[in-house]
Input
Amino acid sequence: MSAQKEVTIYDIAEALDLSPATVSRGLKDHPAIKKDTRKRIFDKAREMGYQQNMFASNLRRSRSNTIGVIVPRLNSYFMSAVISGMEKVANAAGYNLIISQSTESKEKELANIKTLYNSRVDGLLVSLAYDSEDISHFDLFLNKGIPLIFFDRVFEHPKCASIVIDNYKAGYEITNHLINQGSTRIAHITANIKQNVYADRLKGYKHALADNNIPFDDRLVYYCNLSEQAGAEVTQQILEMPQLPDGIFTANDTTAVSCIRTLKQAGIKIPEQIAIAGFNNDPLSKVIEPNLTTMNYPGQEMGELAASTLIRKLDSKEGKSLNTIVLHHNLIVRESSLRSRPLLPLIDAIL
Output
């Protein structure tokens, strides 16, 4: 069966006995075309099944009205919230999103960049992969003056704005909270510290220890990909230590929940023996028992701000970048770290 012929403005013009130029202007709702003529054109176009070629139209305007998005993983509550915020703002402004994931690989990130570039996106919103140590692979966009905004995992660049929270302060606050609950031997489970988010949270952890006169022990810092499986594996390593920690701060909630499950299976009481805190305020933090202490990370707001910053840059052709924009965060204290009687006085009494 042969494919149905695509209806063109010439077909509509012939059916209405009008010039193609008049039909073209009418479909664009041009005021020079009489209102009743415009209605005839629209009605006939609908009747004949005409589809406007937005791609060709956008090419003439040097715009595609699409924004590229690259995230490390799509199977993340935080990233889902970010994308939801981006889509809300982008759609309201007449833009569509093309979303891709790097699966934590710089190589895949580069492939995504090439695909989005060839798709003629107007700008790019990016959270970097674990192993992206520089952004030279984004030169394809930067050299063409195509706006690039980083969020969450960022790289400082004079031509790019970055949307973040204060990860150093957040890491400090979580660690300090665990110390205030009596923990003096705190393990930290994190990821590749070549990324700003994990490096800054580790710095906050270290400085909180130092400010409370607790020596830093690098044997208590564990590096993994922060998956559920990795969380269980790292927790097994912790359980094999001659002296268990009395607190654990993980760099995301997925790992923290996995950690709680594994510790409970081993008979460890939480928070009495080990107090635990995560990061991101995922919904699962309120499902696990005990409920997880975590850091509220405003994903929806981050997505909205990243998209609005990019669109403002596109629409106003701003030449100068806004550099780094820091969003507010807040610690949510729940039962996984909240001790009715802190351990510190008990330790002092024993000594």
